[in-house]
Write a structure and sequence with these properties.
The structure holds two protein chains of two kinds.
Chain A: H1 8-37, H2 41-50, H3 52-62, H4 67-90, H5 96-117, H6 125-130, E1 140-146, E2 149-152, H7 154-171, H8 173-181, H9 183-188, H10 193-215, H11 217-234, H12 238-261, H13 269-287, H14 293-322, H15 338-350, E3 354-356, E4 362-364, H16 366-388, H17 394-404, H18 410-419
Antiparallel strand pairs in A: 1-2, 3-4
Helix pairs in contact in A: 1-2, 1-7, 1-10, 1-11, 1-12, 2-4, 2-5, 2-11, 3-4, 3-5, 4-5, 4-10, 7-10, 10-11, 11-12, 11-13, 12-13, 14-15, 14-16, 16-17, 16-18
Chain B: H1 5-12, H2 14-17, E1 23-32, E2 35-45, E3 50-54, H3 61-69, E4 76-81, E5 84-85, E6 93-96, H4 110-115, H5 119-122, H6 130-142, H7 158-171, E7 176-180, H8 188-203, E8 207-211, H9 218-221, E9 224-229, E10 231-237, H10 238-241, H11 244-251, H12 256-271
Parallel strand pairs in B: 3-8, 3-9, 6-7, 7-8
Antiparallel strand pairs in B: 1-2, 1-4, 4-5, 9-10
Helix pairs in contact in B: 6-7
Amino acid sequence: MSQFAFTELEIQRAVLTIGVAAVCSVSCALLGCFLLLKRMSMLGDAIGHGVLPGIAVAFILTGQLTSLATLLGAMVFGVLTALLAESLASSNVIAEDSSLGVVYTSLFAIGVVLVSALRYVDLDLNCVLMGQLVLVPRNTIDGFAILGVEIPVAFPTMLLTLVLTLAFLTVFWKELKLVAFDPNLAQSMGYSPKLVNYLLIALIAGTTVSAFEAVGLILVLAVLIVPGASAHMLTDRLAPMLIWSAVFAVSASILGYFTATRGRYALDISGMIAVVLGVQFALVVLFAPRHGLIAKWWRNLLLSVRIAEEEILATLFRAEEAGVVVYSLALKDHGLSSWVIGYAHRKLIKRGLLTTNEAELPTLTETGRHTARNLVRSHRLWESYAGAVLDVPADHVHAIAARIEHYIGPELQDELATTLDQPPNDPHGKSIPPK
Amino acid sequence: MQSSLSSAVTTKAPKLASRISILDVHDVTVAYHRKPVLWDVDLTLTEPCLLGIIGPNGAGKSTLIKAILGLVPLVSGSVQVFGQSVASQRKSIGYVPQRESVDWDFPVSVLDVVLMGTYGSLGWFQRPGATEKAWARQCLDMVGLSDFADRQIGQLSGGQQQRTFLARALAQQADVYFMDEPFAGVDAATEQAIIVLLRKLREQGKTVLVVHHDLRTAPIYFDQVAMLNVRLVAAGPTASTFTDENLHKTYGGRLAILDRLSQAVESQTRTR
């Protein structure tokens, strides 16, 4: 039991660390949704790296690593990264993605060199990449406490960026939506897609840099894109997508913290949060109710069962029509597995459309015959339509009709019949059964 | 709230009465990476009309629309709408971009997209309210998509997507419409529905410019045509302009001298 008991200090530490991680993850996730929707995911990577010289320059100019100076430095360099990449691409010298790749790696390298030159700066490259979430509760603001809890240094800047992010999203909601969906229309209406884009980029740069020291670059890059990608799998609306992305960001912060700290080994918290984000995404890809893989597989299965049912009914109807006996329902040439056909067969019997006669052979019931007649009617109407209206030769129409008959509803069937003036026979001379 | 298209026209009618040309494209040249795609184009419209912009692939049809709307920079020339700069006339301009220019997986509903048509009259920071939403629903009704208002846009067929864009343009309550291939990838029934709508706009005194590909339907649909192949070959009433001679000039190979010139420009930029 002792493993699950928390001391007061541990609880305090957990709350502070999770708080910092969650606050910066939420801002990143919300802003990242727009990168994702604008198909500019790689720009998040570029900004995350490109801001590094901004931090160094801010230090050279102001002589200190205050949060406001680094914030501004990062915003300037974030926008600069995007501007440089854009102008390089539009000069038609190299392709767009290569220009982004060249610009941000170069800027990052300059940042690394600058930081290494400033040896006396308390800026550890390792810490920039991995973050130091473990140290968050220990590195507090001197002589400042709320309810007896000392507030970590990282917290105020991060809260500021979250507030800025929420304000930006609220004020520019309409503009963000329009520019992300249809920048051409936005510009034709007099909204500047560039202005909105660069505001977004500046804010992402600011959020990124304020999150660096605490959670590290790797988590920042993950949390910009992954929660939004998971959220888009779950919803078809913009506002719910943003809310879901925040939910994923917060829950990953909590889960990541505990899996990292409560196990036998103390693991890197930022790394673990990023892993949880990845696991969340994998689960959503599998289990999302509409867009998930399993849901898609299930819908395909239901469709092939329905097709198998209809094929069985139509085969039996045609056999009755021709006066032949059907011994096997293998239906090999339709690409349906024997398992699906067997299941469809049992389902038809259960629904009372199919029965077995005295010779133990499958036969249609009265309702089954009615359904089957309707199917064959659709098939032959389509064959006639393809032959008469679309000029498909008679020996080609059957294969198309065999596929398309499963999708012709009653309305379309009526329309086909009216268009063709209620034809008695199909192109092969077989009679089209009445409704 | 202007509840119908006709009332929208009457409020802006004085502009037409004062005999200012609706659209004046003067000496417009546009180039992408130094290669000219539009050269010295002049086009003036004084009367409301339904104008088809036709020409082969790469003739600069979409670019002409984008140049007029200020979406691509002009190398030279100027554009005026109702005798004033385009920037000052944005509220009387409606735009239907090519359907492929947007991401149809975007998480918005059909109604959301139509509502975007009202954004132009709202201005920065103003949110659409109940009046705008009701108007958007009305526009959706005009294109026969009321039942699809709450669908995600990716669930629509190509024709329905095009009609959504058209409803969005109606929501703009513009006087001049620019439509980039509104008939691309739509079924015959939708094409009919769209042309009926465009004619209705025309009857209400609006001007509609349509980039069009199908030469068979062009003379039936439009009362004016502009035949474009980098240069403007001809423009005017369909009956006198859509002639075999002009068609041959437009489609019978690019103008030879232009071709040679753009090749020269290309080879020079490459060696540089």
